[in-house]
Amino acid sequence: xxxxxxxxxxxxxxxxxxxxxxxxxxxxxxxxxxxxxxxxxxxxxxxxxxxxxxxxxxxxxxxxxxxxxxxxxxxxxxxxxxxxxxxxxxxxxxxxxxxxxxxxxxxxxxxxxxxxxxxxxxxxxxxxxxxxxxxxxxxxxxxxxxxxxxxxxxxxxxxxxxxxxxxxxxxxxxxxxxxxxxxxxxxxxxxxxxxxxxxxxxxxxxxxxxxxxxxxxxxxx
Length: 221
Ligand code: SF4
Ligand code: SF4
Fold this sequence. Notes:
- This protein is an alpha/beta fold.
- It has seven helices and seven strands, in the order βαβααβαβαβββαα.
- Strands 3-2-4-5 form a four-stranded parallel beta sheet, sandwiched between helices.
- β4, α5 (about 95-105) and β5 (about 110) form a beta-alpha-beta unit.
- The two termini are about 25 Å apart.
- Bound molecules: iron/sulfur cluster (2 copies).
- One iron/sulfur cluster binds next to α7.
């Protein structure tokens, strides 16, 4: 999932300084799962903004809505209609959701309430960890399902670098060495022979280095 965290309230308040009628828009997708931008967080943010406004002698008119997904135009119609009567939208979606809303909603200010951080997993309650950098050419079939691009601090496709110490990374001694994890996993699943495969230099044009990417599925058009 996309993992995100909420921006400091003072930052959000500064965005809406010259606005009075505000929509706070949550999303039932990833940001609900990581407890940063779902219905509950919309309610909390609305209360915090109201309280902060009163302290400053300012009365906000706040409308709350949580969409199925902000990153899909199919679910934006209600928000687009609603936006005609408001000054600004605070989106509690990931960066993709904020941008699609801004593209589609017409001449109204759209602000992010979250910092989108990474594609990751829940490790334990309240703790998330990065697992994928969307490189566009997945290597997990060679590495026992552990991502060398993400889990190795240097994104080495043929590792380790030689700097690991007792299974931990030389870049950050609290982080397990991604290549130690890969070798251990390959051993455990009886696939250590794949470690001998030299991975050719990646075509990074398929990753972010090639500029904004687009995917077209003719079968779904
Ligand atoms: S190899 Fe690329 S696509 Fe696969 S998990 Fe790692 S970053 Fe993601
Ligand atoms: S110590 Fe391991 S994880 Fe850290 S940079 Fe070297 S190979 Fe990558």
